[in-house]
Amino acid sequence: MTSFNRTTLPDNVRTNGATPNPWWANAVVYQIYPRSFQDTNGDGFGDLKGITSRLDYLADLGVDVLWLSPVYKSPQDDNGYDISDYQDIDPLFGTLDDMDELLAEAHQRGIKIVMDLVVNHTSDEHAWFEASKDKNDPHADWYWWRPARPGFEPGTPGAEPNQWGSYFGGSAWEYDPKRGEYYFHQFSKKQPDLNWENPAVRRAVYDMMNWWLDRGVDGFRMDVITLISKQVDSAGRLPGEPGSEIADGPVGEEGYSNPSPFCADGPRQDEFLAEMRREVFAGRDGFLTVGEAPGINAQRNEHITDPANGELDMLFLFEHVDCDCEGIKWKPLPLHLPTLKRIMAGYQAAVAKAGWASLFDGNHDQPRVVSRWGDDSTEENRVRSAKALALMLHMHRGTPYVYQGEELGMTDAHFTRLDQYRDLESLNAFRQRVEEAKVQDADSMMAGLAARSRDNARTPMQWDASKYAGFTAPDAATEPWISVNENCAAINAAAEFDDPESVYAFYKQLIALRHENPVVSAGDWRLIDADDEHVYAFVRTLGDERLLTVVNLSGRTVDLPAESAALLESAVGGAIVTADAIVIATDDADHAAASLAKRELAAWEGAVVRL
User: Fold this and answer.
1) Between 3.30.1380.10, 3.30.300.30, 3.90.1150.10, 3.20.20.80, what CATH number should domain 1-9+27-113+395-410+456-516 receive?
2) Burial class of residue 467 (count of CB atoms within 10 Å of its CB; 0-12, 13-18, 19+)
3) Among 194, 349, 519, 567, whose CB has the most other CB atoms within 10 angstroms?
4) pLDDT above 80 (res 336)
5) Catalytic residues
6) Is pLDDT above 90 for 574?
């Protein structure tokens, strides 16, 4: 097992309800998007050796776990989330020997490695899928194959088994001439859904997971794991299929119905996750399981992450990152802070007695949070808002996830042309919405892509001010697979590493605070000033210790809201707040104390005060 250079929480401090407390209860996870992290061979793509070369940087930051987006063998249709061989490394990233070296070097530094697990679907180039095209093969029922609708010519419009649309645009059914049937894919047509109803599929997945754990991996982040159980009728038919007892949903503006109500958190979800826990993790120590959980609400999160139910350690919920759009991500709206606070409060309340929360506002599928909810229009506002958003998130109860470059305050790509994008979802959405369904005009869609495209988070990591930002050599023969953000000369790790006022230095403080202070990782959480539109405020309590967090998430000076001001008044008895009462602040302690003495917060200012 990996030995950490931090204290673990004593068992008299309750975390998720387990005894003893899990090792990850005061840990911080750092997500790496390998193709954009560090290129060592000049081919324009990041690789495993590049990650290994940057481990000292990550150890200095203080993170405990690295989550790697997929590095398995893949045709790279969806940047590795379409896997053709679960037990090999794609040559784009290196070799199995490179993976073993990364594991060994990370473990020597007290850092665990969690791999992305993509088992709702495979690549259509996986050997399982190729075999399933033969109806007489043992793999014939490993995917969701269905015949054409009666009375329709197979492969022609309208012959699809039902009207479901793919989340990546177009129909969720693809016709295969070899088998003479359609297969179901919630995402790209090169990502056919596995049929988890088949016990042989589950057995193969569990065997693969055990193989990786035996090799030294410390757990899995499970991609869209809450989509593996589909709703079927008594005869095994999907909703909307001919003769199905379950009616399909309505057809939307793009011409398709939505599979999500029938595929998210399906009837056998708990059964499958509990079986996975028994078959893969029983008898093992030191692992971490976190599931990406579309369709899961806060109350279901409590059940799935309650250790008494033996499913997963934690989940990623998405209501908070879906609240700032007009029904669809490509029509963004300004953040309404009371709505965000209500959602986050619901997450926290659901796991107050058992279970655990994941804390994130950025990842490889989300735009950069400093551009989304902060202000990257000036350097000062970028730094201030990046710190404010970090303080807000990290002072919640749960496990924080830092996405690569977030600790530097990296911004959105600010692309202006369609040919600058690489993301399959973005390109398909433009074609589907603008060119085919004609439900959004090109200018509006380009604005939507600029604000919400996944490529915003996928530009290369900004290590220094050189050409290509240190991601690859300045004289590399091949340019990076996606353009480096033009602001890399001003925003990069080399410039921030030794700067005590940098975003990077602030993240180090936040991570250290979670390691050292049990009230931050495990104390009770209570929202105050819920309706204030500028200040996010809450109280953390553990025993006799109470911490007040107040963060101004706006670009102007604001008065401290009523409940926060009253708590301060009660704590200091009308006296001035002193710097020694400040636990951490986005500005220095003296500045924070001066602001709070006036019962106000400057633009993008935040502080944690000991009451």
Assistant:
1) 3.20.20.80
2) middle
3) 194
4) yes
5) 223, 292
6) no
